[in-house]
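Revision sheet: structure tokens.
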Amino acid sequence: MLRALQKILTAASIEDYEGKAFYSDGEEILIENYEGTQRRYFCGREYERPVSKAFDPYLLVVIDAQEASIGTTDGERIKVLWTDTSLVPGKHRHGGMSQARFQRGHEEAVKQWLRKVLDITQSHFEGQRIIVGGAGMTKDRFLNEMPS
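Predicted:
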């Protein structure tokens, strides 16, 4: 697909295409500056751009046992404020360790990870609404740890 796009741009004599978005109806190419936000375009004979409705910012938290990210969105853009990976071991059994001992260590690592993400979430919380997403069990445990 990248080669096809490069051929089209070469044929259209477009050399500087970084930071640009290209749309075509098969006859003409529409070129716009692209700032890294996602937008939907409905193409036919006319380009129809839905009017985006900005809203009060939301705090976004996406979490699982291996990594988490925190950001904000106003409906138009997402700004990443923090992201990190955890030190929680995978669920497979490590050699030389009893299953019960491994499970206790795993549970403690998950608790520490959830506390860390919760502390960072609270440091970025400014009274806005929060959207939490991620793997079901980890997300549910995180929500249970959050103050009401």
